[in-house]
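Entry for the shared binder. Reason: the reviewer on the internal report wants the predicted structure included alongside the sequence.
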Amino acid sequence: MKQNKKIYILTQIFFLSFTLILTSLILGYKNLNIFNVNWTLYNDAIADYLSWLYFKNDIWRFPVIGDNPNFGISGSSTLAFSGSIPFLAIIFKSLNFLITGNFTYFGIWIFICFYFQSIISFLLINKLTDDYYYSLVGSIFFCLSPILFNQIGIHFSLAGQWIIILSFYFYINENNEKKFLYNIFLIIFSTLVHFYFTIMLLTIYTIFAFCNLLEKKNFLFHTKKILILILALLPLMYVVGYFSIPPQDTLGVGYGYYKLNLLSPIDPSSINSNGSVFWSSIMPDIPSATTGELEGFSYFGLGQLLLILISLFLFLKKKIFNIKKILPYLLLGLIFLLLSLTHKIDVGKYSLIDLDINRYIFGILSLVRASGRFFWPIYYFLIFFSIYIISLNFNKRGKILILSLLLIIQIIDISNGLKNYIFAEAFNKKEYNTKHQIWNDLDQDYETVSSTYIKNQSIHFNNIIGFLKESVMPTEIAYIARFDRRKLIDARYNNYQNFYQNNLDISKFYIINNLGHANHLKFLLKDSEHAILKRDNIWLLLPNKAHLMSDKDIFALSSLKVKKIKLNEKLIFNEKINQVTSEVLGLGWSYDHSTNGIWSDGKRSSIMLDTQNLIKKSYNLEIGITPNLLKDNQKINLSISGDGIESKKLLFKKSDKVQTDKIKIKFKKKNLINRRFLIINFDIEGAVSAIDIRKSPDARKLGIKLNDLIVKDD
């Protein structure tokens, strides 16, 4: 008994020491300080940290503790759909009275992940082999897994891959009651880490329960277990915030893109916050069909590939298992492989299969848009399965020698990738600070930061990180994994209406999204008490702050270019909003990826042109448009107005099968703004969103597509 206790203590000391050394190497000693947060500000981790920071500084909210309304659009942000690791966020928020100031627990989480990844893999192998030293060597494969390091360099929460290994540990050689009950608790816990783990564990549970039911026909047993799971899981998910947004808004774009390539297990290419990472010192790069397949990064490493090949050879040669015992694992492998590959299967850069699937099935599968992650259970199963098979076929000394040799090969091979992670190489080194004094004043004078184009994952989010992390001001500029799309669009349209009516919400200040918006606003808000100025290379709209505009600011604003149109010069709008199109487009336009076009967005949209190069008194402007008629009996009413132009009213109906239309507008130069600037307003009624007709979760009301325009002689 004393001997066992001594071994247990020594084992814990070994893994704790190993984990501390590994964590220190990965973080760098400076980043072990929980008050040093700068290293966490990279890629998606920026949003994870700010989500935690806003949650920490908010009041406790009941009954949905996970609601985080100050970070994001109209209160639709929750812990559930962030990578802030909800259970740690709740624990550390509870400790606010002990720890003052802003801090991060992500370094602690990395330590936890390394520790449990090592100790659980050790326990799993030891349970299968009953060989202490062999299990120690085997556990190192799991700790140095490339897919683990890859996620540490991208998403902190998804480094919790030990949860998958623990699930296998519970299923193997446990009695029927324990293996299902333990996994129910693990599924429940996984919702407090990341929902992808929950889906993985639910899938594993379903497969094992199904096979167990086929074998033992214990229907009542599984009915009770499922009832326990539902009664515990759903209330917890509600409290954390999984149901705070509509179900359709939990769907994400990217299923069929962020996926596994058939050659991903032998492709050493990946990325972290500082760029590309090539993991192998031996294996070559394998070009992929799309960059989205980097999300399916699953490189085993040469040592593990040899381990798997040797064990498969031994397994097939000796036929060690019967079909009943391996059926759950075969089903698990098949289902997870199909999920990770999706309906678009690629081999390297070549497409093998590209299937059309029902849009409703596609919608359900969009819950797991980054489907390449679903190879992880297969990845870890193959490692511990291979280690187990080796142990069955060699004596004690031989199997440790073989496993150690393969581990050395593995470390040599992946050392090329590991060097991109030691001493904090995978983390942020950039300083995020807003330098101008004006930001301190904004923190005092306004209640919310907004945008002239409210959008999730806005291009301006990174520009104001320095301000947000210091002020923790409620922000409508955020980066959120899932959000209420209707609330976002309503907030966008409300801002548009206020801009057009010169009726700004004075509790907000606005980041101006693009130069076209800045140009348009200078006309709309002319002679108002509002300021439009540029600070730290960011254009700002500040209600009731006109006195802050210096002569330099006025000159900079007046110098912004409006597109100078030439006679018979045709402008074509068939790509993303760029510098040229932003000189034409005012408020109320969106780029749509599915049509590769620029569309009116909301009830009013405007274009601007500089007619300085036109010398005659009057001209005709021809504008090519396509109405967005999405359903039967739909009607789009289009009213066109502006200074110096003839007003028009047009009606488009679905029944007319209108594809494109040329609108001719006559304008006179003497009636234009300053006899020079032509601003045309498109007022639209009858536009519907794609979500209204169940085509996609897109809540934008796109009315007309802007195809081209040309000025001709009258």
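Summary line for the report: The CA atoms of residues 517 and 593 lie 21 Å apart.
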